[in-house]
Design brief:
Layout: H1 20-24, H2 30-60, H3 72-101, H4 112-144, H5 155-182, E1 184-186, E2 193-195, H6 202-229, H7 237-267, E3 272-273, H8 275-294, H9 299-304
Antiparallel strand pairs: 1-2, 2-3
Length: 310
Amino acid sequence: MSGSELPDLNMTETLNNSSPTAEFSRFRQPVWIVGEICNIAGILTVTWVVIALSNFGARKGKFFARKGPKHNSETNAASVYKAALVAFVSSYIRLFADQVVFNVGYSDSSPWKCEYALDVSALGYFVTLICVYVFLWLKQRSLYQHPALKRHNQCWVNLISWSSILIICAGVVVAGLIFIFSVNFVASSRGCVSRYSEEFTIWPMILLTAVVTAGQLLMLFLFLFPLRRHADSNRAERVTRMFKRSALFAVICVVSDILALVVLEFALIGHFTRHMVVVAYEYNMLINLISVLLSFESWNTILSSPFSCR
């Protein structure tokens, strides 16, 4: 959001429509109904997973680990588990901000409500994205600490590992700042809409997409590297299976994010309601979060843990 610019209040007939018909017309709009259903479903899903992760972690001692060199595996596992929970909790910023986005802008006298709501929504998306990749990074590093893979945990592997997460985080932060400060949103009879800002150019987002993708590919490489080395070996079967599982869901996260960023670059141009775009990014975020959960071999036990007496 540009602090020195007010939205163009004369651009269309849709701005600041104060009639009661405009205010309540959203209840008859299919995009509003679909957006609300999807958002509420997302909130309920995340809430259940947060409860399940918290319950399972507390009962199985996943949040704490014994200290000392002999208990590095426990320490790594605890860090990974806590990172998963943080990723899910952070998504509430996006989910509740989207609820506001769906219900402002129809008859508001203030042109800033849409802007603020969508800025917070974008902030929640980018924060959750960083949390997801920090989780994947921690899981990758914990797998490389396994005794069967110690010989692969070399200096160049650590260099690529640290480079990948730093590139991803830096790229997401800069992309988030460009998005928030360069895009203007305005109210309309259809809710919040976006208008193409002259100060915004598409090339920074394309460049940042390339940078973030480079970091993601580096991370994927480290997930796939041990698989090739152990392809013809029966050793370290369990850790290899964990690598395959983690690599699969890391690929899903990367593909989902690339598709979302491509949509972002082209959806910003023009004048349209934000509802479906917001839903699309919300479910991109949820796909990433579900991938985080499914990367645990015991994901089904975690989900059912609130019903378990053991």
